[in-house]
Structure formats: structure tokens, C-alpha cells
Amino acid sequence: MDNDKFLSLGKTYLQSNAHGRWDGSIKAGTHRMLCELFISERLGVSTDRAASLYFGSLLNHDRDSLVSRVRRATTDLTDNLDKEIGFPLEKAPNYNKLTPLFVAKFLSLTSDWFDDNPSLMSDDLLTTTLKEITRNHLGMAMPALESYDFEFVDGTQEKPDAFLTMKSKLGQVVTIKPNQFFGCRFTLDKGLNK
């Protein structure tokens, strides 16, 4: 994680909350930038790409921006700075002391949220996971991917053209085909950066 960027944004966020310096626009914009930076770092994508990622299922109408989900995971912190990090409500804050506390708490909350959602994988982590999943035969791939909240896109078990295509909650698309003798091979048809 690029701690300097987080610290800079964290200080700006705290300044927009300081007594006599309240600025809701800067507060909201900086909170969003903190979330985008975290998503960018965690998933290995640009901040622009992080801002455009959606999370959820179109089938269940449970689709929301990933930034909104991460933002909600940190609202207890941002709505209660006085209780969470000792931010003074009526006097000037000590930014040197409070900014690292704020950033550490922010990163802890966002990391916990991501860790509680194992279906959110960077392309690198997805590739590692797919290498493990494809050690088995094609019939095992679907339940394994479904356990990571992937949705069925297309497929057939008809030999010799058997395949399975599935899509993650972040929009990554993977196709798995059986090898001739053992296990499977996969292609990441659409990654987070494609």
C-alpha cells in the first residue's frame, strides 16, 4: 500500500472535518478517493478503473459500485471521528497524531471488508485460485467457482468440445476446458484491466 498517498488524503479528509473548516464537498470527495485508492491497491488496477468497478449480480438485482460498498464499510469511522480516533470537535486537531490513526483504522476496516468477501479477487489472485481449481476435472470447476460467487455464462460437457465459462461479481470472465488426460486449463477472457 502506498502509505504516503493514504496519509495525504487522510489529512485532507480530517481537515475538511475540523472545527471552522467544514467542507462537505471535500469530505465526500476525499472519502471517495480514499476508497478508490484502496480498491486500486488491493485489486492491482488504476484508480480510474477502481472507480468504475461494480460488485454484485445482475441476476439478483444486487449490483452496486464497489466504491459504494467499501465506503459503507467505513462510515462508522467517518461519522464518529471523535469516538473512533479522538478527533476534537471544537478545537484544532493534531494532524500529525490523528492522521496516521485515521489511516490505520480506515485501512483496517476496508481490509476486513475485503477479507469477508473472498469473491473479490485481483486478476493475479484469481489466476492463482484457478490454477488450484483446474487441477481437478471440469465437473469440479463449476461448484468451486460458484463458492466464489461466480455465475454461469455458458458451457457444455459434450466431448471433445467441453468447456465452462463463468463470470465473477467484479465482471472477470474465465473459460475452463479439460486437458486430454488430467485436469483442466483456463483462460482469463476478461480481467479487471481488460
* H/E series: HHHEEHHHHHHEEEE
Structural class: alpha+beta
The major beta sheet can be summarized as:
4 strands, antiparallel
Distance between the termini: 23 Å
Please give the share of residues in helix.
40-55%
SSE order and pairing:
Elements: H1 3-15, H2 24-43, H3 47-52, E1 54-55, E2 64-65, H4 66-73, H5 75-79, H6 81-85, H7 95-115, H8 123-133, H9 138-146, E3 151-156, E4 163-167, E5 173-178, E6 184-190
Antiparallel strand pairs: 1-2, 3-4, 4-5, 5-6
Helix pairs in contact: 1-2, 1-7, 2-4
How would you describe what is shown here?
It contains 9 helices and 6 strands; from the N terminus they run H-H-H-E-E-H-H-H-H-H-H-E-E-E-E. It has helices at 3-15, 24-43, 47-52, 66-73, 75-79, 81-85, 95-115, 123-133, 138-146; strands spanning 54-55, 64-65, 151-156, 163-167, 173-178, 184-190. The strands form 2 sheets. Strands 3-4-5-6 form a 4-stranded antiparallel beta sheet, with helices on one face. The protein has a two-stranded antiparallel ribbon with strand order 1-2. The radius of gyration is 21 Å and the shape is elongated. The model has no long low-confidence stretch (mean pLDDT 92).
